[in-house]
Predict the structure.
Amino acid sequence: MSTTLLDPADNLSRLLRCASVTPEDAGALGTLEAMLKPLGFLVERPVFEADGTPAIENLLAIRGQAGPHLCFAGHTDVVPPGPDADWSQPPFAAIVKDGEIYGRGAVDMKGGIACFVAAVARLESKGALPEGRLSFLITGDEEGPAINGTVKLLAHAEQAGHRFDACLLGEPTNPEALGDMIKIGRRGSMSGVVTLNGRQGHVAYPHLADNPMRRLAPVLAALQDTPLDGGTERFQPSNLEVTTVDTGNSASNVIPARVAIRFNIRFNDHWTPETLRAEVLRRIESALSSAAPGRPMADLYEMTWREPVSDVFVTAPGPLVEKLSDAVEAVTGRRPELSTSGGTSDARYIKNHCPVVEFGLVGKTMHMANERVALSDLETLTAIYETFLTRWFAAQS
């Protein structure tokens, strides 16, 4: 085994030099495979594809034949870096300056992968790697459509007879400092488009047309002005955000035939997708009944729900949450907050297969120019992962 695997900064540098902007792999998974094979992992790199989407390479690496099975999940794809001029260091050069390593994906989330590899390597070097099975489930499609990545990789693993007892997802979860926060769940996400119908015409002859813009304001108010809920025990309040309003009309003397309202809802466990859809429709129809009394709803609007819907979920207290919290506290001296805040992640797919929690680096610079991570944080996260591995497997015996 190469001694460089013990160093998370070296592992990260090798990954950062791969410009793996979704859907390009750019050698990232091959680099990771080269790290894992000396540690005794059997590595597969299945490619999944679907009509209208790019083919995506993924990685499934498994060590061990029997016993409790812990999975580490993540992604090697990154968002575009933007103009090089916005960066003080090249985004794919892995430059270290003032104790920090710069690069797109340093935080989200090649850094987490680099630390987990180092944690496994350090335990292996001491002969202390616990008995059982350990997996890496890594996709190249988390920052993209998420169609040919984790969801298909999980199905592939299941078809091969692999069952995971628990999963740690290495996304950046800490707002300010390592030890702040473990994500034990996520709100759901649902998107839709409501199209208000009218009749096109000349603005000088409004009696011959039907301007749907006159009904826009009441519908927007109905969707947004009244909160969906006040939050629940584990989750912050649900929120509906209108993201675009579009008539497709560039002429100032034409009354548009329709106006489309696109929105996204982040919802908590007060709702199911079915009850939430019903509430949205109720609000729309209530507004339209007042704005255009007596007119059939079928004439006034059309509703399109976008797929897929991400379900809300929370991981119940148990060995996974407790041993990770214990490990964080043992290394940092701080008990992390158990949170369900933030957006979606691939945990929404993993939770259908096993309990999942998320813990990784500080997320302050993710998706920003000059994304970077402190070398000291890489060491701390590696120590947390190493401690967690030992304690989780010990709790299974």
Observations:
- The mean pLDDT is 96.
